[in-house]
Amino acid sequence: MKSSLLSAVLALVPTAIAWKEVSSCDDIKYTSVTGFFLQDDPNTNPSTFDYVRKKFPIITRKILETYPTDAKFDPHHKKTQWQRFANYVDSLNDECKKDRKTTYKVLFMGRHGEGWHNAAETFYGTPAWNCYWAELDGNGTATWADAQLTANGIAQASKANAYYKSRFEQEKLPYFQSYYSSPLKRCIQTANVTFATLNLPHSHPFKPTIKELFRESISIHTCDRRSTKTQIHAFAPHFLFEEGFSEDDLLWRGNEDEGETSAHQVARSKTVMDDVFSHDDNTWISITSHSGEIGSILTALNHQAFSLNTGQIIPVLVKAELVQHTVEPTTTYAGFTTEPTCKSPPLTSISGQGCVCATATTTFTTAKATLKGEL
Ligand SMILES: *[C@@H]1O[C@H](CO)[C@@H](O)[C@H](O)[C@H]1NC(C)=O
Ligand SMILES: *[C@@H]1O[C@H](CO)[C@@H](O)[C@H](O)[C@H]1NC(C)=O
């Protein structure tokens, strides 16, 4: 009698809904809940959109100015839109506690500011960059192996800092409860400049965790090879590492001219999302990552494609549901594949075909060649 009462009581303790208990029989299905942010509106043009220009990234169409929960929460219309949105998300999560199969999180994903590799791609042009220069550590003047931010990149991160400062203080945007970053220095620096100097409450400190799988597409470019754990720790001593983070970069295969396929990237983006959703019970989460990786996460979250320029930010309301594992897909895909490269600056490169090297000594087969876009 007593013990069944106890377990009934335990079942009501909110922390007992932890998805930490996701079993190997469960799969997590993600839906991006649309209609809240301009970035989930098909009419928003990613190439010209700037998150700062809008007072809110929240859609202000008449129908969405109010939430079903407003009547009780804000009868006198005193709350900000972020407060009412946050309250609405809380109400969704309260509802979920009943069946424990569903949860919602608000992810703010920011792309790093401009790095030296971005500046070099502009300087050399994309064909020469992809086929030759990106495979080097730098050009003697600039270094782009695990590139750091240019002055412009730091300015972009400072802009994000001012944005969050005003949103936290004036618009009552909820403080983030968890911060994650890619292990690449340009993201660590961006997250640091964006958040480290904010006047955050003690209950919500900036204590970022570096996660391996938030890194950029693992191409043969040296900007996609990370530094060792020791070097990263020396660079940013106040950043934590996820459990099991290896000393050396075990994933980069640039010295074998092999890069990650996009199928592999979407699969590992799902893996890192599953990791966050099953181990982190927080709702408001900041992730600092890369254009290719955020694009891949958006695919894993079933969000519309939305390409981010350097320093841009995208918020997503994510619904996650525990579902039965479907039968393993029968289609297999290559995880890594040979990427085109030349031994000297190329003549040009042709979309879908690859590099046209100045000398005949190419190290790739044209059929397999794929061009990488902007990082
Ligand atoms: C190296 O690349 C940078 C762009 O990242 C450029 O500004 C600089 O002029 C280049 N140096 C040389 C020697 O070409
Ligand atoms: C992080 O920010 C702090 C405070 O501005 C600064 O002292 C530190 O050098 C920064 N570290 C990195 C890696 O940018």
From TrEMBL:
Keywords from the named record: Signal
One Gene Ontology CC term in the entry: cytoplasm
Protein name: Phosphoglycerate mutase family protein
InterPro entries per record: His_Pase_superF_clade-1 (IPR013078), His_PPase_superfam (IPR029033), PGM_Phosphatase (IPR050275)
Molecular-function GO term, any one: phosphatase activity
Segment forming the signal sequence: 1-18
PANTHER family cross-referenced by the UniProt entry: ANCHORED PROTEIN, PUTATIVE (AFU_ORTHOLOGUE AFUA_1G10590)-RELATED, BROAD-SPECIFICITY PHOSPHATASE YOR283W-RELATED
